[in-house]
Amino acid sequence: MNETPESLTIRRPDDWHVHLRDGEVLAAVTTYTARQFARAIVMPNLAPPVTGVEAAIAYRDRILAAVPEGAAFTPLMTAYLTDATDPDEIARGYEEGVFTAAKLYPANATTNSAHGVSDVANIRSVLERMAAIGMPLCIHGEVTDADIDIFDREKAFISRVLEPLLLSLPDLKVIFEHITTADAVQFVTSADSNVAATITPQHLHINRNAMLVGGIRPHAYCLPVAKRERHRIALREAATSGSAKFFLGTDSAPHARDAKESACGCAGIFNAPFALESYLEVFEDEGALANFEGFASEHGPRFYGLAPNEERITLERTGTQVPDEIDAGGTPIVPFHAGETLRWAIRA
Ligand SMILES: NC(=O)N[C@@H](CC(=O)O)C(=O)O
Ligand SMILES: [Zn+2]
Ligand SMILES: [Zn+2]
Fold it and tell me: Which of 57, 109, 215, 296 has the largest CB neighbor count within 10 A?
């Protein structure tokens, strides 16, 4: 492959972790995702959370109603697991094609996770059923124990929760989502083929300095929080390596500007507007353009057991100016890379 091509054509990608929200911002947010991606794994952390089949069908209908004319976009729904989840409900949703996966939020680990799982032992029967039917489990992998420093919560999750879980249910299909550490890269790399990970654009671009040097920068704050530079380097190596265990999941998580710029700002980075352009810079800077299509468009569907998209999209080296702010149905939101110029643009 030419090392500095003017354009790059790949299969249309999918986003294996996105927050489309609900209500007045849903249409604007969905439009950005549908511009780039054919499918997306839609997170269920609404208020109240999407815990059952009927709620997921209703949410899917609201999303489909928000997809712009002419765009072909399929939302893949997830079930929010709680201590009280009924295994029959999860299995029924999967078998009826409503749920593509279920989502494990450790209680209080992140935005809208108060109803999450307080101990994986409480959902043992759900996880056993999922392993038996081959249903994927998406995991926000951070412990919430007060004795664990926030920068160590992902690493501690591996030894305290994930390793024991996979030892006892070795066939469970697990997506370790939005990984942020060299420890997670190492764990996923050495795990069996039923364990994979998604990586966000922000964790490939920024380390924790971006959040804390020269003033506190709430728009660089998300969970899991960005770590030291050595972790960012490990994530870039994993994403661009060509390994099928790592694939695209933006974790685009919009919050209103005033909810971020606050004494207690919300966690989440809104990267959906230019996610693909953002990822592509990383692959180009790593000299790994040849591995971009695998990460963006092939590894995810392969892991989920779905066919890759047949449609193609083209990115061109014409540049993208990222606005300082985006109006999402009347709600101002600051996007990732606000005010920057990215090198690539999706051909309209
Ligand atoms: N990533 C985040 O910082 N926030 C996400 C929740 C999540 O994915 O953990 C959100 O819903 O806002
Ligand atoms: Zn999360
Ligand atoms: Zn998320």
Answer: 296
Domain membership of residue 208 (yes or no) is yes
Over residues 241-247, mean pLDDT: 98
Ligand nearest to the CA of 17: 3
- Report residue 277's pLDDT band, with 50, 70 and 90 as the boundaries: very high
For the chain, the domain total comes to 1
Domain CATH code at residue 230: 3.20.20.140
CB count within 10 Å of CB 214 equals: 7
Domain range spanning residue 268? Answer: 14-308
From the CB of 110, is ligand 1 less than 6 Å away? yes
Does the CB atom of residue 78 touch ligand 1 within 6 A?
no
Residue 338 lies in a domain: no
Determine if residue 207 is labeled as part of a ligand binding site.
no
In this model, does residue 62 exceed pLDDT 80?
Answer: yes
Instruction: Please identify every residue annotated as catalytic.
Output: 251
Statement: residue 1 has pLDDT above 70? no
Does 108 count as an annotated binding residue?
no
- What share of the chain in percent tops pLDDT 70? 100
Is 268's C-beta closer than 6 angstroms to any atom of ligand 1?
A: yes
Least distant ligand from the CA of 104: 2
Q: Is 140 annotated as a binding residue?
A: yes
Could you tell me the distance, in angstroms and rounded to a whole number, from the CA of residue 293 to the centre of ligand 2? 24
ipTM of the complex: 0.99
Residues with CB under 5 A from ligand 3 (ion): 251
Query: Binning pLDDT at 50, 70 and 90, where does residue 149 land?
Result: very high
Q: Which of 134, 178, 344, 342 is nearest to 269 (CA)?
A: 178
The angle that helices 53-66 and 26-36 make with each other, rounded to 10 degrees, is 80
> Around 94, how many Cα atoms within 13 Å sit in the side-chain half-sphere?
23
Q: Considering Cα of 171, then 249, then 48, then 108, what sign does the dihedral take?
A: positive
Residues whose Cβ atom is located within 5 A of ion ligand 2: 110, 140
286, two tokens: 């790593």
Domain assignment present for residue 326? The answer is no
Query: Cβ-count burial of 217 within 10 angstroms (0-12 exposed, 13-18 middle, 19+ buried)?
Result: middle
Q: What is the pLDDT of residue 2?
A: 76
Does residue 325 fall inside a structural domain?
no
